Amino acid sequence: TTEIYTLSLHDALPICHGVADTVTRSREEALALATQVRTQALGGGDWTTLHSENTDEPGSPPNGDLGTFGRGQMVPAFERAVFALEVGATGEVVETPFGFHVIQRVE
User: Fold this and answer.
1) 55 burial class (0-12, 13-18, 19+ CB within 10 angstroms)?
2) pLDDT 10s per residue in the chain (107 long)?
3) Strand (E) positions, the chain?
4) In whole angstroms, what is the distance from residue 93 CA to residue 68 CA?
5) Which of 13, 57, 69, 86 has the greatest number of beta carbons closer than 10 A?
6) Whether 16 contacts 98, CB under 8 Å
């Protein structure tokens, strides 16, 4: 199992739990924002602040902490990215059917 923090950014496509009701950015804008947030995280930005100011995930847990999970519990692209990360690393921006994600592996 692994534990991660994630920050999710969406475009205006109606694919994720009503996000499209509040998000108006394009796919390209969502990717650019996710890339910017990742750069800030890599530069030592405070994850809690980055998460609270940028995530679009409805009902997102504090800090984006998804807790622990094993293989086969997340969509494939997300899971591949998570399990490829070293503990303490922040990965590349990952796109899933639910949007773009910045992932930090903490355990």
Assistant:
1) buried
2) 555 555 565 444 433 444 445 667 778 888 888 899 899 999 999 888 888 888 877 677 777 787 788 888 888 998 899 889 888 888 899 998 888 888 888 87
3) 2-9, 65-69, 94-96, 99-105
4) 20
5) 57
6) yes
Please give the Cα distance from 61 to 93 (Å, whole number): 19
Phi-psi region of 32 (alpha: psi -120 to 50; beta: other; left: phi over 0): alpha
User: What's the half-sphere exposure (Cβ side, CA atoms, 13 Å) at 25?
Assistant: 17
Longest Cα–Cα distance in the chain: 36
pLDDT at 2: 55
